[in-house]
Amino acid sequence: MARLVIVSNRVPAVRERAQPAGGLAVALRDAVQGQECLWFGWSGQQVPDDEGEDRRVSVDKVDNVTYATVDLTQSEYNGFYEGYSNGILWPLCHYRAGLMNYTRQDRHIYHAVNTMFARKLAPLLKSDDLIWVHDYHLFPLGLALRELGVKCRIGFFLHIPFPPWSLMRALPGAEKLMKSLRAYDVMGVQTEDDARNVNEGFSVVGVPARARVFPIGIDPESFQQQASAGLNNPEVQKLEKSLRGLPLIIGVDRMDYSKGLPERFRAYEVFLRKYPEYRGKVIYLQITPVSRGSVPEYKVLREELDGVVGHLNGTYGDFDWVPIRYLTHPVPRELLAPFFRLARAALVTPLRDGMNLVAKEYVAAQDEKDPGALILSRFAGAAPEMEDALLVNPHDADEVADALHKALSMSLSERQVRWKRLKPDVWRVTAGSWARSFITSLAEVRSA
Ligand code: GDG
Q1: Which CATH architecture fits 4-217+431-444?
Q2: Residue 159 annotated in active site
Q3: 355-382 burial, b for 16+ CB within 10 Å, e for fewer?
Q4: Ligand 1 atom with the shortest distance to the CA of 21
Q5: Which pTM was predicted?
Q6: Catalytic residue among 94, 134, 137, 159
Q7: What is the ipTM of this complex?
Q8: What is the pLDDT of residues 306-351, one digit of tens each?
């Protein structure tokens, strides 16, 4: 059996390796059981610029997985990670060209880091390896490997959306970037829309390749178990007690402008104005761990959210009730699942999202006896698979407010019917099946 080589910007930290906590690490453990695997990427460490020259790959093996990581220099971190990946590609791929902070220097550093990754990785490769590259940080890695003579099969999966060419072409060098994707034997994306957009780009630059759809999932079985088991956790009981029998609305999102949080809070204000009977009669818990805190747009967002939440709590709150319980620090995973279980409704309203795993986690955490209602943005990659959610346009505050009202006043039988229709897809397309189907497609391609 061919060895699998995973390349991603971040490699699970040492403490996460023996017991992966979620996401890619769990999906891959599932998919490559008993198979040899090499996982290559950034160590998460930054070193001074003058230490870049003689940096080494550090290697560490846990069971069947070998982890190989390199440090980034401070300038590489700034230019490659914060600058080009998160300050340019992220907004553009989320249809927000106006938020791009493009500089030529960041573009050079982005390409230089991809080349450096290729040079460090190439000597570790065997001729029949299957290489699976992840996400927008590493678009040009496949070509950089080909230029070093690597002949293995190489696949790429994009976790975030891909915009139409009319938008993508706002990126200086977009044609070149698009052409570089020809190096991949399999180009995977989350949704049909993304595939259509990638294919449009391919046809503009004359690349005959086609993108394929591999929607990502979660591990629903273990999430559901965590949700039930967690109900006995004293922290969870503390939350439950604090609800005083009132319905709970939950939101869980990394603090990112793609998640539509200011829009969501404004919709919640419309809800409190339009349906004043809910003032003091509903608890809204919003968990929003700070992310990418040193990228300028994220600082601006944090201040905006602080302002909107302060406005809501000051205006609509009372001495014994706050409209929003707002946390900007992460909550441990073993609490998150039972929190979802306790919630009567979830607000998942990104302006754009590759998939959005929270929507699937919320469904997985519910119990047939009393399931909650999911309010989901039409612009989440999960929406086409989840038509029995209350689908909304996150820009339309009235529509979101009405959906919230509908969720909170929905009969038990309607909640059960909707949940029963949502459940099969969440159980069918799991993290493990996603990884296996990508790897199988890559293995079926004839070597380049
Ligand atoms: C990217 C794409 C795509 C969040 N807060 C806490 C916490 N989380 C967990 C959630 C969920 C994960 O983080 C977030 O996943 P999402 O899919 O919602 O969003 P991104 O982070 O933007 O992920 C996305 C994904 O990649 C996979 O391809 O679906 O579209 O943008 O699992 O539960 N977990 C804990 N505490 C928190 O406070 N423990």
Answers
A1: 3-Layer(aba) Sandwich (3.40)
A2: yes
A3: bbbbbbbbbbbbeeeebbbbbbbebbbb
A4: 39
A5: 0.97
A6: 159
A7: 0.99
A8: 999 999 999 999 999 999 999 999 999 899 999 999 999 999 999 9
